[in-house]
Amino acid sequence: MSFQIAVGCNIRKSPYFDATVADGVVSFSVYNHMFAPSHFGDPEGEYRALLDKVVMWDVSCERQVELAGPDAEQLMRYLTPRDISGTVIGQGRYVPMCDYDGNLINDPVLQKLADDCFWLSIADSDILLWAQAIAAERGLDVRVTEPDASPLGVQGPCADDVVADLFGDWVRELKYFWFRETDLDGIPILLARSGWSKQGGFELYLRDARQGTELYKRVKEAGVQYGIIPSAPSDIERIESGLLSYGADARYGVNPFEAGLGAFVGLDRDDDFVGKAALQKMMKEGIRRRRVGLVIVGDKISGFTHPHGIYLGEDVVGTVTEAVYSPRLEKNIAVALLNSEIADDEPGLEADIGAERRLAWVSKLPF
Ligand code: THG
């Protein structure tokens, strides 16, 4: 393709924007109305560094939505089908969100900062407006705002060493999705054990956008001895690991059962939440399709830019939502939404990969 996206004022820039440009970012995507690095020129090398060493990535586009005030918890409970009771201050939770028809509209990570203050670290959709409207229409006493908080990810087997060198050995004890408010020589940070890979690591939520370049530099310097390189969330690793990419694998019209997030839907909750009646009905009626992994035969696939069909003969029986070549598995792997009546061992499936159809079979997620 021979076009570019203009770097204009209508799309927001991360506090790490200048630092990633200086570091040689080659490609951005747009996520939550913000430029988000997608690679630094060598996606496969970046993937290897994530598996073998450590990478850092700007995920400032995972914007925060803050719910603060006496009714914050009530609003939080209403916004997600997940039962969040028992969540304590300092703890995070994965909390998919639905619309009133039971469709998935986001899959944020919730963080409880205080009894009356929650953050939602959102995927790519406008939850700030949604939550503001629901709070106002329900007459709740809660302020819904975007705080000054921008996650910088440090992921990979050496992530603990890098982050411990910066903050101290206490970080090694932090449990998955738990966090602590701290600082790095005066740079205010919420430090969480989290991140969009299965290689382990942390996210440093910078709480002063003016200090993005400085924080980026400090993390990089601490990582040098461990071989850190700049990167971005890896499509290859996230597909191998079966992590959902809201926006790519599901956008409007996919429900959490289809998306494989049924475990996070608390249908037996006593209290009401957005989408409850619709989700109960879906549970009763069963789902039409489900998210699966696919192995696609043949040469290395590259550059999957939009969803394609899955065929059984001439019938379209699903959609491939993203496909990559996995160097670890030495196979083309994909995420797909497959019609429920197709069995896991169906031998005749073909995936459209753009220029041709190729034989494909279902594989469990994670690969
Ligand atoms: N960082 C931050 N916020 C985010 C993302 C991020 N918000 C949106 C999106 N990415 C959230 N997506 C996921 C998806 C899966 C997981 C975490 C974030 C995950 N899931 C565990 C798993 O699949 O095994 C299960 C979690 C659980 O059991 O509670 O880790 O990258 N800041």
Tags for this model:
367 residues, six-stranded mixed beta sheet, six-stranded antiparallel barrel, 8 helices, 21 strands, 20% helix, globular, binds (6S)-5,6,7,8-tetrahydrofolate
Describe, in plain words, how this protein is organized in 3D:
- This protein is α+β, with helices and mostly antiparallel strands.
- The protein has 8 helices and 21 strands.
- The strands form 5 sheets. The chain has a 6-stranded mixed beta sheet, with helices on both faces. The chain has a 6-stranded antiparallel beta barrel with strand order 16-19-18-17-20-21.
- Strand 12 (179-184) and strand 13 form a beta hairpin.
- The longest helix has 12 residues, at 212-223.
- The model has no long low-confidence stretch (mean pLDDT 96).
- Bound molecules: (6S)-5,6,7,8-tetrahydrofolate (THG).
- (6S)-5,6,7,8-tetrahydrofolate is lined by residues 59, 62, 94, 107-109, 121-123, 151, 194-196, 203, 243-244.
Percent helix, as a range, is: 10-25%
Extract low-pLDDT stretches. Answer: none
Please write the string of helix (H) and strand (E) elements: HEEHEEHEEEEEHEEHEEEHEHHEEEEEE
Total count of helical runs of at least 4 residues: 8
Q: What is the distance, rounded to the nearest whole angstrom, between the alpha carbons of the first and last residues?
A: 31 Å
Structural class: alpha+beta
Largest sheet: 6 strands, mixed
Strand order of the largest sheet: 12-13-14-11-3-15
Radius of gyration: 21 Å
**C-alpha geometry:** globular
Please tell me the overall pLDDT.
96
Strand content: 25-35%
